[in-house]
Design goal:
The protein contains nine helices and five strands; from the N terminus they run H-H-H-H-H-H-H-H-H-E-E-E-E-E. Helix 2 (41-106) packs antiparallel against helix 4 (122-192) and helix 7 crosses helix 8 (274-284). Helices cover 56% and strands 7% of the residues. It has helices at residues 12-28, 41-106, 112-118, 122-192, 197-205, 211-215, 245-255, 274-284, 293-297, and strands at residues 313-316, 322-328, 331-334, 343-346, 352-356.
Amino acid sequence: MASHRRPKKPGKARVGVITAAAATAVALSPGMSHADPAPSKDQVKAQINDLQHQAEIATEELNGFQEKTERLQGQVGQIQERIAQEQSDLISLQDSMGAVASAQYKNAGIDPTIALLLSEKPDDYLRKASQLDQITAHQADSIQAIQAKKRSLDQERSEASQKLGELEQTRKSLTTKKSEVEEKLQKAQQLLNTLSEAERAAMLADDGHGDDARASRDDSRAPSTPTAKATQKETPPANIPAVSGRAGAAIAAAYAQIGKPYVYGATGPSSFDCSGLTGWAWRQAGVSLPRTSQGQAGIGPNIPKSQVQPGDLIIYYSGYSHVAIYIGNGQIIHAPKPGTNVRVAPWDSMQITKIVRPS
C-alpha cells in the first residue's frame, strides 16, 4: 500500500539557514543596497581641488579662443576696409570709363578714317586717338586688377567669417563645459559647507590643487620661510629681495594686487585669474604677454630651477594650466583659485613644469 505520510516540517536549524540566506539575498538584490557613506573631509577636499583644477583648465582654453576671436575680428575688419576702398576705386574708374564711353558714343556714326580726313589738324587727332586707346587700356587693366583683388578679398572675408563661426561655436562649447564644472563646484561646495569654518579656511589656504600635486613637488625645493604662513592673510612677506628693471616693475605691480579676488576670465584691475594677473603685471612693465598660461609658457625656453630669477613665470601642471610670477626666496605671487584672493605662496606648492623669462 502507498504510504500516506505527511511531509516533515523543517527543523529549527534548517529554518535558520533559510532565513539567513533570504536575508543575504535581500541585502544583495538591486535597489536594496545601503546608501554610500558620506565622503570624508579628505575626499571633499580632493573633489573640490579636482573640480577647481578642471575649471581652471577650461577657463584658460576659453581665454585662448577669445584671444583668437578678437585677433581674427581685427583681421576681418582690416579686410573689410580694404574691400571698401577697392570698391570705391572701382566706382571711380567706372565713372571715368562712363565719361569716355559717352564721348565715344557721340562720334559713333563717324568712321575714324573720315574723321581723320575731315580734321583740320590730323596730327592732333592721331595723338588724341592714341591717348584715348592708352587710357582705355589702362583703365581696363585697372578694373580687372581691382576685380581680381576684390574676389580675393571676398574669399578671405568668407574664410575669416567661417573661422569666426567655428571659434564662436568652440567658445560656446567651452562655456558650456565651464558651466558644468561650476555646477560640480556648487555640489562640492554643499559638502564643504558641512565642515567647520576653520576647516573651510584651511582648504582655501591650500594653494595646491590636490594631493597629487603636492606629491610631485621637486625634491630640491627651496626651504619654506616663516612668512609662508602669512600668505593666508594675503600680506606680502618682508624678506623678499628688491628687484630693479622691468622684472622689478612687474613684481611691484603684482604686489599691488594682493588681496584682490580670483575671478574666471578676469584680467584686472579689480579681479584676476592666474594668467590675467601675470599678464597684467608684466604689461605694467611694458611687456606684452599672451593671454593664456599655455601661451605664456611658450614665450621662451625652459629655465632650470637653479637659475630662476625674480620676475620669471612659473608654469604649473602638465597642461600648463596655472601660472604665477616668481618674486624671490622661493615665493610667488598668484591668483590661486575660486574663493581666494591674489596672494604670496611658496613656489613649490604645486607641480612646476616650466619656468620662462619675459623680456
